[in-house]
């Protein structure tokens, strides 16, 4: 079901956790909230489910207004029909698995027989068909996670929220459950919001990702767009992009190139951006866009630096090098096998000006807000 | 595994040494008194110095459920149940208010759940006999003056149960408060999200989750009330109400003392407490789930709205009844040079106020000696108990020495022994042993060390168990020997908890009366005994003055210890 969060702020005393956040989620869409600790992800989600009372704004689910500060509407959590998978799973230890999953139906006074059938279906869906009569305090982390998911699905929620549901699990299980969650969500056509601060998880799960910082959304885009065109250095940094440097951009020349002087007197980098910026900027070069040469390339090339390989690792499909060149530590990825470089080898690093991305520096909070 | 494990095969015999020595000490301290008690209960002669005689008989046990015994047993049961119910209601309510509501003065409410712990039940009994004895009880005087047609009488079963309820409430408070405030709030939030109203959340989630704490505190409180000696003795005697502990005391003080029957009752009482402990173990083993969350979440607070001040008033009236009113009454009683009060106005007649009683008490050489004795005993228990209990905990949790399981069992055994019974067992045990300890302060020290062994041992154990053996093992692999690992890693890490458990021993020893009742002589009275004697001898004003001084001493120690104990700094959970 379509969700509309409009200009919502959440405040704890003097501490503003969410600042006038707006977010539209289409029916059947999965939006991932991504951001560093304390940026307001959980607070946003708790406002949607009704566990937190925002200090301003409106929240609409389908065509039901769930919260409207101005009109004093605040539908309590138990009447919103929003499901939530908590970070701690919140499996009740004094009940069996089936009682846990059946709880939402019991509260809605669903007849026994139907309830039993739906519980069985939900457990089947998450792969716990034989676990119904187990005590819930004896489950492993992964099993609890599945029970939490089954409990959320069984009530057929209008919206399903996930608050870092995988953060307590080991890496392998995480990937498996992540894919299962995505699968279930798409098959059931559920509208979902998923919170994480793991960028890999965000990119793998989302229809759209909202990158948050200090209570606002910095960028809201599809994973591909986000990765291709981060809006500023914060987003790039948070998505785990390497080779980000700060500098000052000079005014662009008539051919569109501009030189960017890095801090602490390293050589200028020449960039050629579609929409040039000037002043204080960040520049970002993708590791796979850097080229390594044993000998200095003979063509006149604006960005060539000589350096030393400080470490390297082979990853099957690619090789990752760390090169110290011209005072920068650069990450370089090559897909060509047999480059046959060793630690300590002298190399030349080159990059095309059009592969140097120029991003605005992270400035004040207000300047970063996603335009409505 | 821990460092000491690695001892070689050749050192087999030396490995037996530490536990062997420890077990020998424990046998004398713990097992011998129990043995003597059982022995006395099945023979027809009184144990006397240096000799164990008498013929085997089970007649004392057949007397157990007849006549005065039966009514003492019935009273014990009634008071146990009623006192437990009342203290749980009070403690549970305070815990709920402090942990889950926006009651005004939350910190004060929290404190009021704990402070009565530092007023010993002995002082509570003294104070309440001043407040609510029939006729001249201060509250009765006030009631008459304002025309309330109620005559309180504390010397009745309901009266005694009331005093128990007041002074044992902190135990339920602490356990239930812990469960409520540490519970992962997401468990309740989930219930709400999945469709439960506030009331249904409480019924289906919150209550079932605190039930183990409620049950545990019920069992604990019942056990403590059943073995309490000063309250039923001081408040029951005027009305002819005996419980098993006070009855044992009377049998021993009768002429001639009926020691064997007392021993039999002691064994019976021990069995009762033992059964309670077994039930408690069972319950704990069956239902223990961790509901504690890793993240520092804030539990949900219930907004009381217009009930805020009503709830506050209830909390305040508890602290008034348990602490403020009793201390005020003791002060009034001890300051008056003229005990008779004809009306409310006399309470405020300053012309009769003075410090005579305090000077009298302070100049009383009995009191002075008792003060000195109490301090000596307390400090020695702190030292001896600290060393013994920590050693036991260390051997059980940090070594693989043979016999350590046995050490653990013995450490917990005194839990089943009511203090009065322990006192009796000690008396006879040290009659038998060729060491003339009876009549010295040392026998009190040893009795207290045994009495508080379960607390001392488990508090050090808990902190030892929280230290991962890897920490020691890494010292071990870094080249430190087992002893160096222990001294450089383990001891520094548990120092705080050893200190806090030793301080707890000091407070408990200063408070203790029951374990001393058969062990003191005129030379070795302690403060609690002196107050008890003042009461017994009918010098109430002096008892009141002594009680106040005694409470001041206890309070001062508690205040000093607070930094280490962290009891009053109950966790306030913020972001
Ligand atoms: N109940 C509360 N009372 C006071 N401050 C709070 C409360 N809940 C959250 N905060 C504060 O609001 C801010 C946002 O918190 P929130 O839990 O929404 O962050 P988050 O993005 O979910 O972080 P994390 O990734 O660590 O879970 C933080 O600064 C946090 O300290
Ligand atoms: Mg969070």
From TrEMBL, chain A:
It is an enzyme of class 7 (translocase). Keywords: ATP-binding, Nucleotide-binding, Transport. SMART domains: AAA. InterPro entries: AAA+_ATPase (IPR003593), ABC_SmlMolc_Importer (IPR050093), ABC_transporter-like_ATP-bd (IPR003439), ABC_transporter-like_CS (IPR017871), Mo/tungstate-bd_C_term_dom (IPR008995), P-loop_NTPase (IPR027417), Transp-assoc_OB_typ2 (IPR013611). Residues 3-239 form the ABC transporter domain. GO terms for cellular component: ATP-binding cassette (ABC) transporter complex. One of its GO terms (molecular function) is ATP hydrolysis activity. Its EC number is 7.6.2.9. The keyword Transport applies. This is ABC-type quaternary amine transporter. It comes from Jiangella asiatica. The lineage of its organism: Bacteria, Bacillati, Actinomycetota, Actinomycetes, Jiangellales.
TrEMBL record, chain B:
It is found in: Cell inner membrane; Cell membrane. One of its GO terms (cellular component) is plasma membrane. One of its GO terms (biological process) is transmembrane transport. It is a multi-pass membrane protein. The chain crosses the membrane at residues 21-42, 77-99, 111-132, 152-177, 209-226, 261-279, 309-331, 375-397, 409-431, 437-454, 498-520, 540-561. Signal peptide: none annotated. Keywords: Cell inner membrane, Cell membrane, Membrane, Transmembrane, Transmembrane helix, Transport. Its main location: membrane. Pfam families: BPD_transp_1. Residues 73-280, 371-561 form the ABC transmembrane type-1 domain. Belongs to the binding-protein-dependent transport system permease family. This is Iron ABC transporter permease. It comes from Jiangella asiatica. The lineage of its organism: Bacteria, Bacillati, Actinomycetota, Actinomycetes, Jiangellales.
């Amino acid at each position: 079901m379509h969700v509309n969060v409009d200009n919502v702020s959440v405040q704890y005393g003097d501490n503003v956790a969410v600042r006038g956040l707006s977010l539209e989620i289409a029916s059947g869409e999965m939006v991932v909230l991504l951001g560093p600790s304390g940026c307001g992800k959980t607070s946003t989600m708790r406002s949607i489910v009704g566990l937190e009372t925002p200090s301003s704004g409106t929240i609409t689910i389908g065509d039901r207004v769930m919260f409207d500060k101005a009109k004093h509407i605040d539908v309590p959590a138990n009447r919103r029909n929003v499901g939530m998978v908590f970070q701690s799973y919140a499996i009740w230890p004094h009940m069996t698995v089936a009682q846990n999953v059946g709880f939402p139906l019991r509260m809605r006074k669903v007849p026994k027989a139907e309830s039993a059938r739906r519980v069985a279906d939900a457990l089947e869906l998450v792969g716990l068909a034989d676990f119904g009569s187990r005590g819930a305090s004896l489950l492993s982390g992964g099993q609890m996670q599945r029970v939490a998911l089954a409990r959320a699905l069984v009530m057929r929620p209008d919206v399903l929220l996930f608050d870092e549901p995988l953060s307590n699990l080991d890496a392998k299980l995480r990937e498996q459950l992540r894919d299962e969650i995505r699968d279930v969500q798409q098959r059931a056509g559920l509208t979902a919001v998923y919170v994480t601060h793991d960028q890999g998880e965000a990119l793998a799960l989302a229809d759209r990702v909202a990158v948050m910082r200090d209570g606002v959304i910095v960028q809201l885009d599809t994973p591909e767009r986000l990765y291709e065109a981060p809006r500023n250095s914060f987003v790039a940094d948070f998505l785990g992009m390497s080779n980000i440097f700060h500098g000052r951009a000079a005014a662009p020349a008539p051919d569109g190139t501009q030189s960017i002087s890095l801090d602490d007197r390293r050589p200028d980098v020449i960039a050629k951006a579609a929409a040039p910026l000037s002043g204080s900027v960040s520049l970002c070069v993708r590791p796979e866009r850097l080229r390594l040469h044993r000998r200095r390339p003979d063509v006149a090339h604006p960005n060539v630096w000589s350096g030393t390989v400080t470490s390297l690792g082979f990853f099957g499909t690619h090789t990752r090098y760390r090169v110290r060149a011209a005072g920068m530590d650069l990450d370089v990825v090559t897909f060509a096998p047999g480059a046959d470089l060793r630690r300590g080898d002298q190399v030349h690093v080159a990059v095309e000006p059009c592969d140097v991305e120029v991003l605005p520096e992270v400035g004040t909070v207000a300047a970063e807000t996603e335009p409505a | 595994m821990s460092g000491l494990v690695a001892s070689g095969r050749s050192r087999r015999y030396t490995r037996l040494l530490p536990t062997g020595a420890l077990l020998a000490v424990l046998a004398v301290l713990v097992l011998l008194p129990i043995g003597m008690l059982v022995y006395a209960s099945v023979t027809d002669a009184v144990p006397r110095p240096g000799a164990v005689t008498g013929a085997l008989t089970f007649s004392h046990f057949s007397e157990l459920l007849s006549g005065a015994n039966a009514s003492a047993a019935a009273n014990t049961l009634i008071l146990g149940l009623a006192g437990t119910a009342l203290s749980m209601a009070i403690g549970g309510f305070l815990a709920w208010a402090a942990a889950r509501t926006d009651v005004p003065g939350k910190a004060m409410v929290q404190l009021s759940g704990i402070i009565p712990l530092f007023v010993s039940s002995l002082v509570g009994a003294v104070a309440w006999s001043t407040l609510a004895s029939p006729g001249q009880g201060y509250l009765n005087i006030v009631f008459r003056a304002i025309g309330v047609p109620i005559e309180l009488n504390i010397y009745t079963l309901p009266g005694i149960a009331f005093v128990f309820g007041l002074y044992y409430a902190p135990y339920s408070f602490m356990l239930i408060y812990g469960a409520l405030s540490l519970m992962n709030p997401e468990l309740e939030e989930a219930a709400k999200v999945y469709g439960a109203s506030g009331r249904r959340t409480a019924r289906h989630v919150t209550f079932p989750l605190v039930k183990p704490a409620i049950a545990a505190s019920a069992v604990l409180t019942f056990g403590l009330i059943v073995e309490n000696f000063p309250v039923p003795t001081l408040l029951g005697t005027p009305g002819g109400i005996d419980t098993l502990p006070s009855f044992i005391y009377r049998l021993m003080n009768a002429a001639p003392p009926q020691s064997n029957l007392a021993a039999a009752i002691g064994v019976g009482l021990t069995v009762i407490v033992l059964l309670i402990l077994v039930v408690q173990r069972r319950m704990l083993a069956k239902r223990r789930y961790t509901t504690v969350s890793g993240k520092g979440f804030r539990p949900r607070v219930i907004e009381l709205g217009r009930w805020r001040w009503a709830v506050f008033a209830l909390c305040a009236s508890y602290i008034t009844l348990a602490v403020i009113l009793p201390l005020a009454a003791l002060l009034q009683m001890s300051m008056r040079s003229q005990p008779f009060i004809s009306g409310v106005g006399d309470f405020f007649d300053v012309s009769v106020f003075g410090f005579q009683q305090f000077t009298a008490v302070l100049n009383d050489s009995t009191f002075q000696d008792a003060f000195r004795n109490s301090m000596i005993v307390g400090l020695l228990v702190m030292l001896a108990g600290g060393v013994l209990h920590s050693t036991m905990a260390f051997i059980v949790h940090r070594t693989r020495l043979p016999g350590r399981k046995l050490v653990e069992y013995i450490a917990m055994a005194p839990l089943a022994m009511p203090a009065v019974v322990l006192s009796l067992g000690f008396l006879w045990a040290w009659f038998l042993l060729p060491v003339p300890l009876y009549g010295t302060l040392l026998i009190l020290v040893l009795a207290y060390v045994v009495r508080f062994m379960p607390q001392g041992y488990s508090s050090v154990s808990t902190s030892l168990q929280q230290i991962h053996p890897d920490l020691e093992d890494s010292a071990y692999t870094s080249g430190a020997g087992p002893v160096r690992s222990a001294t450089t890693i383990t001891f520094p890490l548990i120092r705080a908890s050893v200190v806090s458990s030793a301080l707890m021993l000091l407070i408990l020893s200063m408070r203790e009366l029951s374990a001393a009742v058969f062990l003191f002589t005129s030379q070795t009275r302690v403060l609690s005994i002196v107050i008890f004697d003042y009461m017994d001898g009918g010098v109430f004003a002096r008892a009141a003055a002594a009680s106040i001084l005694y409470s001041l001493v206890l309070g001062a120690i508690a205040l000093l210890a607070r930094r280490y104990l962290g009891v009053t700094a109950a966790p306030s959970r913020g972001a």
